[in-house]
């Protein structure tokens, strides 16, 4: 046992290799680096009173730096399913992005057995703390909801089209939308994000990551992801259906910001009842021209009064 390190059964060679990897990791990151003691003091030694929440990555804590600046600290859990690759991916990805609807990265901390990401503090926590709470949700009137929807759409448009890198978030959900003092939405958590070249529009993976329920069918089933995968997740936040019916984010922003909103088409049958067909070119389509099964349910289509 090595005194003061809390490591059991480690050899000197193991420690030297870990430290070497640690230093090389620091050199890859073009962001401000904080030392662990500074962040520990700011968060009152990561006390429970300062804990803001818990995710797949680990716990998030509120902190106050010596200059009085409020921060949010994401601490990689030693038991986390997301490791150093996701940590570096998040830091490298978001450090190259600047938009009012993306959470701002202030820096990170890389020390033996500690990985921390430091963000701007968002006092109103995440969107799910409002929409899934009976008391909090009444605070979100329609103008406020519209403002949040519009902000998320603009943030996604920036990721998909206007940033230096084309970014697919791959884990867009209510808990990853943070809200500041003015309730301005900011997209966060880029640990699972993927960057695309200018000519790339989709990719395939055998490792499907993200959150079921917010995950598009073509991604969850076949591992196909594209900017439309994020559009599906966005649609879940504002209630939406099939890939062919999803607009791109430029269209969504145009519709949301226009005073003369065009007439919308009648809603189609839910995508859950459609049969999915994948063509040879990888493009999924949906067919509803099937005889209903013996245990089928009837669907009532609402109309205007």
Automatic annotation (TrEMBL):
Disulfide bond recorded as keyword: no
Annotated binding of ATP, by residue: 74
Domain of life, per lineage: Eukaryota
Keywords, ordered alphabetically: ATP-binding, Kinase, Nucleotide-binding, Serine/threonine-protein kinase, Transferase
Stretches with biased composition (Low complexity): 1-13, 284-298
InterPro entries per UniProt: Kinase-like_dom_sf, Prot_kinase_dom, Protein_kinase_ATP_BS, Ser-Thr/Tyr_kinase_cat_dom, Ser/Thr_kinase_AS
Residue ranges occupied by any Protein kinase domain in the UniProt entry: 46-305
Region (Disordered): 1-27, 284-305
Record SUPFAM superfamilies: Protein kinase-like (PK-like) (SSF56112)
Family to which this protein belongs: Belongs to the protein kinase superfamily.
Protein's recorded name: G-type lectin S-receptor-like serine/threonine-protein kinase At1g11410
Species, as recorded: Gossypium hirsutum (Upland cotton)
Gene responsible for this protein: LOC107942884
């Amino acid at each position: 046992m090595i005194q003061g390190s809390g490591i059991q059964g480690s050899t000197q060679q193991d420690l030297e290799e870990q430290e070497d990897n640690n230093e090389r990791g620091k050199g890859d990151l073009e962001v401000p680096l904080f030392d662990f003691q500074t962040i520990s003091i700011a968060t009152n030694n990561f006390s429970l009173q300062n804990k803001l929440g818990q995710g797949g990555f680990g716990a998030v804590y509120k902190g106050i730096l010596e200059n009085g600046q409020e921060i949010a600290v994401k601490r990689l859990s030693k038991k986390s399913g997301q490791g150093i690759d996701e940590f570096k991916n998040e830091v490298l990805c978001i450090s190259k992005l600047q938009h009012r609807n993306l959470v701002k990265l202030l820096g990170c901390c890389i020390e033996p057995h500690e990985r921390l990401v430091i963000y701007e503090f968002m006092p109103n926590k995440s969107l799910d703390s409002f929409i899934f709470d009976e008391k909090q949700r009444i605070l979100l009137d329609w103008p406020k909801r519209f403002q949040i929807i519009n902000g998320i759409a603009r943030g996604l448009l920036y990721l998909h089209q206007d940033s230096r890198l084309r970014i697919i978030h791959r884990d867009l959900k209510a808990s990853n939308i943070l809200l500041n003092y003015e309730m301005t939405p900011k997209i966060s958590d880029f640990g699972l994000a993927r960057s695309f070249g200018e000519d790339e529009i989709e990719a395939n993976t055998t490792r499907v990551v993200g959150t079921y329920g917010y995950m598009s069918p073509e991604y969850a089933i076949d591992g196909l992801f594209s900017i439309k995968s994020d559009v599906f997740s966005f649609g879940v936040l504002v209630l939406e259906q099939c890939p062919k019916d999803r607009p791109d984010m430029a269209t969504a922003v145009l519709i949301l910001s226009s005073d003369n909103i065009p007439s919308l088409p009648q809603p189609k049958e839910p995508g859950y009842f459609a049969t999915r067909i994948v063509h040879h070119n990888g493009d999924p389509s949906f067919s509803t021209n099937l005889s209903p099964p013996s245990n089928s349910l009837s669907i009532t289509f609402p109309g205007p009064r």
